Amino acid sequence: MPVFTEHAAASRELRVLPSFAPPLPRLTSTTPQTDKYEVLIVGAGPAGLMMELLLARYGLSDDSLLCIDAKSTTLKSGQADGVQPRTLETLKSLGLADEILCEGCQMWQVAFWNPSEDKEKIIERTSIIPDVAAPSRYPFEVTIHQGRIERILETDLLRYSKRGVQRNTKLLDVRMDEDGDAEYPVVAEIETDGQTRTVRSKFLIGADGAHSVVRRKMGLKLEGESSDHIWGVVDLVVDTDFPDIRRRCAIHSPAGSVMVIPRERIATGEYLTRLYVQVPGDVAHGDDLDLASGTGTPVVDARARRSQVTEKTIFDNAAAAFAPYYIRPKSDGAVDWWAAYQIGQRVTDRFSVKDSRGINRVFIAGDACHTHSPKAGQGMNVSMMDSYNLAWKLAYFINGLTPDGPNDILDTYHQERHTIAQQLIEFDKAFSSMFSGKIGPAEDGVDGLTHDEFMEVFRRGNGFTSGCGVEYPENMTVDRSSTENPIRGTDFLSGILYPGRRLLNVRLVRHADGYRRDIQDDFTSTGRFRILCLTSSDLLDPTGISAQALKALSQTIARFPASLLEQVVVHPRLPRDFMWNDIPREVKQHSEMSFYSGYEMDDVYGIYGVDPEKGALAIVRPDGYIGVIASLADISRADRYLETLIRTVQVDL
Amino acid sequence: MPVFTEHAAASRELRVLPSFAPPLPRLTSTTPQTDKYEVLIVGAGPAGLMMELLLARYGLSDDSLLCIDAKSTTLKSGQADGVQPRTLETLKSLGLADEILCEGCQMWQVAFWNPSEDKEKIIERTSIIPDVAAPSRYPFEVTIHQGRIERILETDLLRYSKRGVQRNTKLLDVRMDEDGDAEYPVVAEIETDGQTRTVRSKFLIGADGAHSVVRRKMGLKLEGESSDHIWGVVDLVVDTDFPDIRRRCAIHSPAGSVMVIPRERIATGEYLTRLYVQVPGDVAHGDDLDLASGTGTPVVDARARRSQVTEKTIFDNAAAAFAPYYIRPKSDGAVDWWAAYQIGQRVTDRFSVKDSRGINRVFIAGDACHTHSPKAGQGMNVSMMDSYNLAWKLAYFINGLTPDGPNDILDTYHQERHTIAQQLIEFDKAFSSMFSGKIGPAEDGVDGLTHDEFMEVFRRGNGFTSGCGVEYPENMTVDRSSTENPIRGTDFLSGILYPGRRLLNVRLVRHADGYRRDIQDDFTSTGRFRILCLTSSDLLDPTGISAQALKALSQTIARFPASLLEQVVVHPRLPRDFMWNDIPREVKQHSEMSFYSGYEMDDVYGIYGVDPEKGALAIVRPDGYIGVIASLADISRADRYLETLIRTVQVDL
């Protein structure tokens, strides 16, 4: 178009950049000091990177935050490959899901293969079911190289941090020394390229893996044991006539068990497959590597058996289990990676260590907390979610956003994540041992396992393994003490609101612009608490319960630091069409772009268990888990919950 | 998991990187030479960047490809903001849609405001309709800063090109000189920081905007004229009680016309709004800036009127049109950009220039080809789609993938895009003049415009403005000469297959893994032709028409350079469940990961107009437009179409 007069503001040109997450408000001050950091993170795997990224996005600068890793590059990393639905939701809330969704392998189905009664067929497909049964925004798992997840996290980190991860740096020792400096009581000796230095920090996160130095130095105990089964795992491009090679498969054949995990497409245009292959025979119970002490001394008998596992034995066992179908590497070089392992399930007894004043100062996260078998695809997920749970609590504490008082929000990290780690181990034990077992009648004194029993463990586990069924126990951030619960229903996995559960995604239509939108996109991971107000059908009545609640909530929002509370409002079907001036002005004031009809797409009230005649209110934590539920008549309940967690501010009235 | 034996291939570590598009095969050779390039692109706006990115992804290296731009940075750029549904599909096919979809403003609805019969109300909302009526994968427009689109394209470009755009470099002159070097006949004088040098190229693309030097130097003519209406445009954060400020609005008030374009959220957390405001009074016809000659001399009267347009006049006119609602900048600095312009509609007579052998050597794309009003949000889209149309044709020609012969695939660029440019101008004239007119009865001898008439222009235009209704005329890449058309129906906009139209997205379920998938994700912009085979319901019959067609297509695929033809197979509901070994082996051989059921999600056969009893076949061009349609009994028709466009190779049988 021919423009003849033009004027532009200087700020306009900044709009070409990707958006940045808004930092959290900060009420405390801090001064950069040499070799002192507010947070020191040890280890830059999925747990450590997620922790650093979140803290950087919440506003901690390179002066305040240091993450070290012993490795020299991001490339050499673990071999986890499964990304669960809840993890995908979390990555989406950080704007980091697209590459994973588009270029990972979406795993939609699982097929069960069992011995056939027809001896010529040997095995047959018993059923195909959805891989993810729990309702979720992303009803599938994704498999993708762990290193790629790490690269995605680190690329985003470098938008917020100039330093990123300080590599080639290992932790030698860590101890608590309050006498030297009570504000920075954690003392770490670290070594970079042979140079040792001492670094003090307010908090230290040990995300340093299964052999965690932090765990050992802080005297935390990894409890549990190895099972007696040996497995081989191999990633490769296969040539096979097995019909379900692109589905996740649980194959119980007379010759042994195999799990098939389809994986992502690679640069050649071909697709990877991962096989977990049972290596027959058992190692005696207790013959496990001593991971807790890190000495790794196996008992001789077990070592001998393990040393016999080679690429060839893994393939031979796989080929036997696939019979009568053939399976082989597609070409020379088609084998990408292989390893042998013994299943072990362990949990560390405590996830944090306090100073003498009772403040949690050292935390462990990820594999440092829990080890388990890889077959349910949990490792990378539980690790990242450990950090996702801790990061906002730590940022609130550091930024002075939590009130003074006897309660410590940092206690809730162990309370919540240790519970999850124990559930993980219990599920993994059940799943692994059934998977290692044989389907069919009892034989040689060993109990047989029916297909139905196996399916039942798989089904029950799905809420947990998808991450969507995680339920945190009651604690100061999860308040279930309601006397008057406005929510009907108990099927929390399907969306019924419940403190300690994540807010299920629903689709709704925005009033302001007709945008058909996912509610989770208003619950992004910017560290804010959200008020989710589901109004009653009296919204158009200026003296109704909804109008009163919205007015009271407006005062609630004003009582806490600016921007820390966001409000999302949903309305049920109303008696007539309306415009902004027909509803309480507080809706437009606080929620112009987060005000929705809750019936045009999904039946939001039905899914969340809310009576449209009565409405309801939920406070959602920064990590998307519901903190408390209240009726619209009882806003003070929400106030009390928030006051426990967030410092109030002076309000100019 | 405790791993005790491990082996990894070296290539494994590359898998952490984002995927790269596979380059096109190349049958010709080329040697890097100083100051000689296969393609020189002038201008790095949306058209130039899209061209460079596509050619780089198709495999042209920095030795072969040079893009220059006179500006020193990507930041200063145009003010277009609309991204249309078809453009979104195209960006998605390049893996570049996510940021735009998530951080742009999704515009779902348009509201029409007209004079009210109630004098106190002054204006009232007549209706709200969906902004995009055409079926599309993305049923909305997105508004976002043009500079951001450019930054996204350039970021991706830098994965494929080390140099990226060579900035601070302007084109001084361009001419054809076959005598000097017939292989590199295009001679360009370019200047970088005061240094002049001569560059030869095989092909040159003038993507250098409305004042194109390429166009002028090559003697191409911009035809058309300016209208008599003056408009102001302003981007700002508004404070208003107008209820539809977050919807696209066409406001026809007694005091004048305003168009409201909601825009993206900015760093402050606030949302931008764009207003197009009519400035009352007309400039005499023909009083336009002489863009063609570039001298820009306006007639005195028009200049005087234009100079009166200021930020204040724009706001005063806007405020008057919004009455009785108030509208004002939210705060100091809320005005982001403002400009005044006069609508002009022009098209260049020819989009390319041939050498003496009849080979097209110089092309123009984008604003160099067409200028028009900004209100339909077309500029950036048509410009990028010009390049999207030309790039694969040019790459095929350069790589020697086109057969020798009298036909020149490069002719089709002008044939197709000039047609679209003319349609654009015609729509824009109708839309702009109706928008500039008043709604209501005839007055002072000027014909009145009814709301229904306006809506009709808006509706009819939607297929075109969304980009989804684009229909290329018949040419060597669009073959409609079918004697036996297997397609029923004529509602091409709604998906009925038709040569020259883009393949509408449908959702289907993949056989191999149950992935619920968008068909367009198998039609990515990697420069490949695709065979879309919709089998008939006799697929399970080894001697049926489907089996015969698939066998013949397998031979077709082998006759062209490896990887250049991809096959997507869809089946209708079949008489029974099946596994791979129940269907022709060619399906798994060529389409293991692109074989779908076409009835479990969308009714693919119904949408595409294909009889499930008979099936059908379409060849889809690399840019997603259908080239030819054939019945399953007539594969030779597809063969003939492909042979016209692609060189065949020796087949070892």
TrEMBL record, chains A, B:
Q: Does the keyword RNA-binding apply?
A: no
Q: Name the UniProt key words of this record, in alphabetical order.
A: FAD, Flavoprotein, Oxidoreductase
- Stored InterPro entries: FAD-bd, FAD/NAD-bd_sf, Phe_hydrox_C_dim_dom, PHOX_C_sf, RIFMO-like, Thioredoxin-like_sf
Q: What is this protein called?
A: Uncharacterized protein
Instruction: Please name the PANTHER family in this protein's record.
Output: MONOOXYGENASE, PUTATIVE (AFU_ORTHOLOGUE AFUA_6G03030)-RELATED (PTHR43004:SF15), TRK SYSTEM POTASSIUM UPTAKE PROTEIN (PTHR43004)
Q: Which Gene3D superfamilies match?
A: 3.40.30.20, D-Amino Acid Oxidase, subunit A, domain 2, FAD/NAD(P)-binding domain
UniProt similarity note: Belongs to the PheA/TfdB FAD monooxygenase family.
Signal peptide positions are: none
State any single GO MF term.
FAD binding
Start and end residues of each Phenol hydroxylase-like C-terminal dimerisation domain: 470-646
Using the record's annotation, list all stretches that form the FAD-binding domain: 37-272, 303-427
What's a Pfam family this protein contains? FAD_binding_3
